[in-house]
Fold this protein.
Amino acid sequence: MSQADAVSDPRVANRARFELELEFVQSLANPFYLHSLAQQGILNQPTFINFLKYLEYWKDKDYARFIL
């Protein structure tokens, strides 16, 4: 499957998004990463705060079971 086909296939695109968001959620458990975000002022940016609100769906047990 070519990269163009992968992007046009919704299942592949959804899986890629799922994996990317899962990796990001897991990275938020790293205090050094959070410290870096805080030092850069990212934690206070409205866009970032909205993204964190969007990621709250990871609290649902159907998604939370994937978090290591």
User: Anything to note?
Assistant: The two ends are 30 Å apart (CA to CA). The mean pLDDT is 93. The helical segments are 3-8, 10-27, 31-39, 46-54, 61-64. The chain has five helices and no strands.
